[in-house]
Automatic annotation (TrEMBL):
This is Uncharacterized protein. Residues 74-96 are annotated as: Disordered. It comes from the Bacteria. The chain crosses the membrane at residues 40-57. Keywords: Membrane, Transmembrane, Transmembrane helix. Residues 76-88 have a biased composition (Low complexity).
Length: 96
């Protein structure tokens, strides 16, 4: 088994836990149904896995739309037309 596969699987599961759970649940049902010869469980598992893929695709589309929509707005202009403020000095005058 490739060493990058478990890392990528763990990264994907941490990034989108709900859709990953749905996808894994459907895949396990499909494998159990396919090995056991239960075609109804296989078909339900495949449907659930497709739903998990669709949920993940929808979440990716939503996050890309938010990233495009979120433009940076600056409160100040990039360069000020006014001259900079003078430095303040502290002159102590002693009364004696």
């Amino acid at each position: 088994m490739n060493i990058f596969f478990p890392r990528s699987l763990k990264l994907a599961y941490r990034k989108e836990p709900i859709s990953s759970f749905i996808l894994i649940l459907g895949a396990v049902d499909a494998v159990i149904g396919g090995v056991g010869g239960r075609w109804s469980l296989l078909s339900v598992g495949l449907i659930i896995a497709v739903i998990g893929i669709l949920v993940r695709w929808q979440q990716l589309q939503k996050s890309q739309a938010v990233a495009v929509k979120n433009n940076t707005k600056y409160a100040l202009p990039p360069s000020s037309s006014n001259s900079p403020l003078p430095l303040l000095t502290h002159n102590k005058q002693r009364k004696g």
